[in-house]
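Dear support,

I submitted the protein below through the web form. The confirmation email said the job was done, but the results page showed an empty box. After a refresh the structure appeared. I'm attaching both so you can tell me whether what I see now is the final result or a partial one.
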Amino acid sequence: MNDKAFQLKTSRGDFRVAVDGDETAPALVLSNSLGTTLEMWAPQVAAFSAGHRLIRYDTRGHGGSPVTPGPYSFDDLGQDVLAVLDALQIKRAAFCGISMGGHTGLWLGIHAGPRLSAIAVCNSAAKIGAEPAWRERAAMVRSGGAAGMRALANSAPGRWFTDGFIHAHPATVQQAQEGIAGIDPEGYASCCEALASSDLRADIGRIAVPTLLLAGESDPVTTVADAQAMQAGIPGARLAVVPASHLSNLEAPQAFNQALLDFISSIPAA
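What the results page shows now:
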């Protein structure tokens, strides 16, 4: 676990947070994917904290953050981010999220643009997956409990990584599997329900914040075509494609980091 992480009291509960870098530097928030914790961002910490006040947090229902009864919505998950910023007295931040975290970034871009200097929506979509499949998964983990989460963990690598990466980096894959197996079933199911009910396709045209859409060229979950569809809908959005599957920050960290740093550095300071 991350020895820098601490419980941050916010207006929406105590969230598990880690903060790195100079507190006077521009803020950058990283938001995890479904079934992971803030530890998923380990390959990004050194690169991003060099020039930013880097904030990582466990999304509601995950890790050490509140596991409240579901279902959740992206109104909940987006308001949580704003509560974390408020508790840290940060008026404005850049935001980068992957998968579920990327969808949270879209919600923030639509509903809280003035709080954001930029958003990076990585391995995500304005509508992720099919509603029945998410509800089926939520029901499965609620009824299956810890055993249901272990079953999900066993099947996760094929959704998260390319076959080549799975064979070349078994320790990283196993670490990701152990992470999902340790997530609270109610928290995981409630986030599945948030994904089931959220469709932002009609709203992304309202995003006026500088936006990067980052896709993994081999991602079977949120495809390059999903990113291209968002780019067509978000004024001025940029697209970057990296050689990876769904958890691109873990599979292709150098390409991921460079794409994000190039994007953020190109945005004029407020």
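Response: this is the final, complete result; the empty box was a page-load delay. The mean pLDDT is 96.
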